[in-house]
Each structure stands twice: as structure tokens, then as C-alpha cells.
Amino acid sequence: MNNLYHQHILSNGLKVLMKEISTAPLISTWVWYRIGSKDEPSGRTGISHWVEHMQFKGTRQYPASMLDKAISRDGGMWNAFTYLDWTTYFETMPADKIDLALRLEADRMVHSTYAPQEVASERTVVISEREGSENEPLFLLGEAIQQAAFRIHPYHHEILGDLADLRSIRRDDLYQHYKTYYKPNNAVLSIAGDFKSRTMLKRIRELFEGIPAGSPPPRLARPEPNVRGEHRLTVEGPGETTYLQICYHTPASSHPDFFPLTVLDSLLAGPSSLNMFGGGGISNKTSRLYRALIEKELAVSVNGNLSVTSDPYLYTLTLTVHPRHTAEELLAAFDDEVKRIQDERTPKEEITRAIKQARALFAYGSENITNQAFWLGHAEMFATYEWFLTYLEKLAQVTPADLQKAAQDYLRPQNRVVGIYHPTNLQEAA
Amino acid sequence: MNPRQRSARTATSSGLPGPEDTVRSVLPNGITVLARANFNSPSVVIGGYLQVGSLFDPDEKLGLADFTALALMRGTERQDVQQIFDALESAGANLSFSAGTHTTGFSGRSLSEDLPLILSTLTEVLRQPTFPAEQIEKLRAQLLTGLSIRAQDTADMASLTFDQILFTGHPYARPEDGWPETIQTIRRKDLASFHRRRYGARGMIVAVAGAIEPQQAVEQVQEALGDWENPDQTDPPPLPPLRPLKKTTLRKVKIPGKSQSDIVIGTSGPSRKDPEFMPASLGNSILGQFGMSGRIGNIVRKKSGLAYYAYSSLSAGIGPGSWEVSSGVNPGNVQKAMDLICKEIAHFIKKGISAEELADSQSNFVGRLPLSLESNAGVVNALLHMERFDLGLDYYRRYPDLVRSVTMEQVVSTARKYFDPDLLAIAIAGP
Predict the structure, then answer these.
(1) pTM of the model
(2) Could you give the domains of chain A?
(3) Fewer beta carbons under 10 A from the terminal one: N or C of chain A?
């Protein structure tokens, strides 16, 4: 992977990052808005995600039916995502067709219509999306843990929003949210693929620079106070399988401790891939928790997830409890393993191994242009693109002492929420 | 004896795979190797399959092929499970197996310098697995947990039930991962015997794409697997014909406590080698894929707001295929969604399609090729697809013409041949 990229800030504040990659005749372009569920007050939860849906409902110039047809006709792929910190829209197209995507994104930064009948039909779609998620035990457990982990900070609520709000949010609320946060000075455009930066920048200027900047959008500044002890909770629901989730409070991803925590996760639960698109992951059968919990038949699966966020969030370990054991027995064995990594200095070779794994996963992700353009913008949402470029170097600098300190500082029972999903074994044949 | 070669030349990844940049070589023991270079990133992907699948499973031991495939890496004559995975994971490499109805597939990836490690692991677990008793019991518990999760998944259960209706009396009605009671009856000796009698080099396909010269990839595969012979390897049993549905059949699976129901409605479809595959595929795109999930997405999601997902899919492989519409809706809206979907299918059959719709989908099929082939994994899938269905190494070069030559009449007559609005299989899973 080459590390060359170009960065410009247009006169209206839109930040543009460009990376030339000529391995395939493709271009992937992403527009990122600094608005996600963390800026939603009570009563408006889920509004950022719903706005994301409304952004596919068309503008006067590009009515909804015309948009998806035009992109699909050219063999493009497009979608959007809403997260805690951001909302993003992307198109990956054959290189000679990318202009359509740029015109569309410039247009829907300002001209989306939010027709009342479209708001009405999308209300039941976002409710349906939530109902589908509620079918999953791990969604129900995760949501309960999030609420327990954050009392003040708006990371408290699910990105999909609460049903009460999805029923009561009105068209004007959605439109107001759009008009407040969808501004060039609150956005980043990242683009990677088969183009020349000078020509591309010229075209981006033509399309985007005329969009006026707005006043800086309001933020909900509600930092979470220090945690004062462990929370434990249970969720009951349909199923035959018990799940255990253990979530530790962790710093923002731009914090230096993020890197020892990444290595810690790799040693405990196996290496996680940064790749949003392509690449896939690798197995975790030689990770410490697999050997201690799965090989000993206390659990049937384990995985770790250190989320990438702009504010302090969570490191989550998800375990499927073995049918012959209880969640409490599993938690006790888990705690023994965590204690070991806190008490004993990790051999340097184990860290070196984690770095090699990260390097391989990084290489797999670089095959994919969509993934490259994703990171070019995503890193800007919580740090800068340099964070991504120096990611492997930073991991390589982690010492056994750093690792031990991170384990001692963060993996304390007082710093966590433990959640158990108890199945009610309701299944019966019709 | 040297491998027989049809062509050899170093490739670049900028174009579509073709005969001059893909090496295809048949080893004397019956393994076909395909390879294509891509030096854009320092990694390599390997994929392939053996001619062994759940077709061999007795009803009372359904899931045997899958269990065997998953147990291969749990220990060999030379290494235990921790040693096998320690080597792979230390290199940031991956290798995994899974069984389907006809074949058992494998896929792996590594930095290109570690391809020999992947190949030596592949050959060792394929040829010398020991199925250690303790590991088999651990794996069994994992499989059983997987099946309890499946039993609670409305989408999985609707899809499984749909296959049971559509393929009644045919092996395709059986889930490859079996049932809790069949997984319980499988003994260690069943796995060992299944492996001894069914696994072999004959008919095996291996594809490699990535930062390695294709000829070198072929040589590495030959070195690892070229001397594998199993004189006991048996051929799969023949597929019986599909008995067509005699009337619309609806079956419900009750999963209490769920907040959403899943619906699958459909019929049979052509096999992949059938000339009707391409017209059916374009018809499927118009019905429930193109843009935001075609006509089905338009009516169920966009216009009615009934579902987050509603789309159609065509599954075409070796034997008879299926053509189905899937959607997840509020339990109170099941009937409404079903009516809308059935009405849309009937409309599609009766009124046919427009020239514009066909041109749109044709353009999409051709335009999306570079995207589907940009990564090594995409290229490996393409190589395996060409080989499995005898499409020829020039398939992706001919593909635009194949797509564009399909007429409206062909799409409509194919859709009418398979879809009869009065003869549908309907499965619903929910509270």
C-alpha cells in the first residue's frame, strides 16, 4: 500500500482527501458528516439514522427512483451508514462513471426534499429495521449494556433509536436535523481510486465549493463521569443459548492507550481486522481466552471488539456460554485469565506475533479500493488519516510494560458492565 | 510427468480474467489447478473444493459431511489442533472448510510468502486427519449450539422450511448442517470412515490468486497434493429428479417471543448450466435486485413501508435451482406483505417486463464486473465458478455479449416457465 495522499480544505470548509490507486478501473467516494447518535437528545433518538434513510428519497434534480437506477445501471455499489459519531454515504463506481456519484452527493448535501409521504413510509421501515434487530439476543443484551454503561453521555442510546421516538419524530424534526448538520464545514469527502488528483480536485471544487458554509452545528457536550464500580445486569428473551458480555470503559481511539488495548484484545480474543470491506478475518483458536475458555468447554465462542470512537467508549468481549456451564462459572474463569495478563509480564514474542497478524490483516484490506477510501475519511472522524497510516508503527511500539499497565488500568471489574442473556427456552414446533 | 498446461502468462489485475492470464493445469491424480497473478498487494488467496458433500449423508446421520469437514483441522498424525492453528495464526494466515450438498469447500489467505504454509496445512489436514475424540466432542457441542441458534433465527428457519417444501423428496430438502438429533448420533468412527471412503483428489479443484507467478502457484500445489491418491474414493450418488409442487403450499414455523417474522415465497429455478440461467438471472434482477431491490423492494419497502428488507434471489448450482422472494416484516403485517409479493409475482408473469428494465439490468450486470473482480477473493470465486460450470476461461471476456444477447421474450418465457402464481412454496417463521 502506498501512503501518498492529497488533502485540501475548500473555502466553505469541506475537507477533501484524495488517494490515487490505479490497481483496478474503479473509484470509491465517501461523504462523511460529523453527526451520529451521540448528538441526539432524548426524544430524538434514532433521528440521524432516519435522516440517513431520507437522504435516499431524492431531490428535485435527482428523484429517488432515478438515483438508484442511475447508480445500478453503471454497475456501481452505494450505501450509507450511521454510527455513534458520524453518518456516511458512499459510491464505488467504474472510474469513468464517478462523476454521477459526485454530482449526486453535492446535490443531496443541500437539496433533499423530505416529502411528508416519504417520511411516513420510512417511519415504518426504520421501525421494521429495529424489530428485525430485536430478534437477535445480542442486540437486546448490547442495548441494555450501553444504557448501563452511559448514564450521561449520549452513547447511552442505540443508533437505531428508541421505539417511542421513532413513533413521535415528525417531518420537520428530520428536516431540521438535516439542515443543521449537513454542511460542508461539518463534512469530509474522501475519494480513492483510478484518477489524477489535480483533475479530481478541480471537479470537486466545481461541484461542492458553491455550497455555503453554515454556523458550527450544536453539540451535546455531556461527558460521562468516572465509573464508580461494576454494573451487572440480565436480559431475558427467547432462545436456548446463554450469552455473556463483558464491557470495559476505554478511552477515545485517538488516545495513546488505544494501541496497547488493541494488542491486548489481540492476545486475549484474537486479532480483529480493521477492514470494513474485503479482507476477512483470521481465526482465534490460539488466543488466550480460546485456550482457557473454549478448549476447557466453559464457552463455545469468544470474540473481542474494541470500537473506534471519538469519545471514550467500550471494549466488548462476547462469549457464548457452553450448555453444560453457567455464565457465572464462565465469568470466574474469564477473570482468572484477565488476572494472568495483569500479573505476569507478557513475553515480547507474543506481542511480535500480534504485530505480524495485524500487518497481514492490513495487507488484505489494501486490496479493496472501497476499504481504502473508507479509511481515508473514517480516520478523520476521530483523529486524522495519519492515525491510519501510522497504525502498524504504533502497534509495533507497544512494550510488555505498556501492555501490562493497560490491562491493570482498564480491565478492572470496577471499570466494567457485565451482562448476561438468559434464554427462556420458548421454542416449540407449530 | 509435467502438468498439462493450456496457457501461461503473467497477468495484471486491471482487466477481466481470460485465457492468456490464467493458468489452468490438470495434475495426473485428477486435481485441476487454476492460478492468476495480482501483485498489487503482498497477499494471496486460495480456494477450492472436493467432490464430497451432504449427498453422501444417511438421513439418520445428516450433517456428517459438514461435521467431517469442520473436524479435519482438529488434529493430524503430525500435529494437534493448537499446533496447526498456532502456525497459521502466527503468520496472520487463515484456512477453513465447510461442506455443501455436492462439495466440500476450503478457503484460505495469507501473505504470499506464507502460501507454502497454507498448502502444507491443507494437504496434511486433508490426508492425515486423526479426528481426536476429545476434539470431536468439543466440536459437537459447538455444532449443537449453532443449531439451537439456527432454530431461533427467523430468516434461517423460513429459508430451511422453504427448501423442505420446494424440494420434498429430493436431497436438496435436507439442511447440510443436519439436526440436533442427527449430530448426536454421529460417532468418531463415522467421521474417520467418511473421510477414508469419500475424500480424494479426483475432481478436486484448487484456485490461487495473488502475489505469486501462476506457474509457481501450480508447482506449489503439485508439490503439496500431486501424489495424493485414494483408490477407495467413491463417486457421489446421482441426483433424483425434482417432483414439482402440485399446489401452493404454505408452512409456518412458530418461534415465540420474536418481534419480526420472515417470509420466503418462491418456486424452482434453472440449474447453472441450463441455457435459461442468464434470462432467469436478468428476470430476477428486475423482479427483486436492481437498484433498491427491484420491483419487490419498490412495492414492499419503498411504497408500503412494510419492511427493511424485501428482495428476490435465484440460486442456481449443479441440480435444480430455486427462485425466491424474502422479506422480514412485523408479525401483524405478514398477510399484507404476502399478498403484495404474490400480486407482484403474478403481475411480473402476466405483464412481462419493459425494454428499459431489461437494458438497465443488462447494463448493471456488465458494469459491476470490475467491482466483483477487484480483490483476490473475487478472482478466486470467478476461477472456481468458471471451472465448476464448464464456462471456459474466456467466460468473463464473453460475458458482456452473453448478457446483452438476452431478449425480453426469453426473460418472460423463462419466468413463466418457472413461476406459476398458483403453485408457490411459502414459508413463514415468527411468533
Answers:
(1) 0.94
(2) 6-208 (3.30.830.10), 231-423 (3.30.830.10)
(3) C
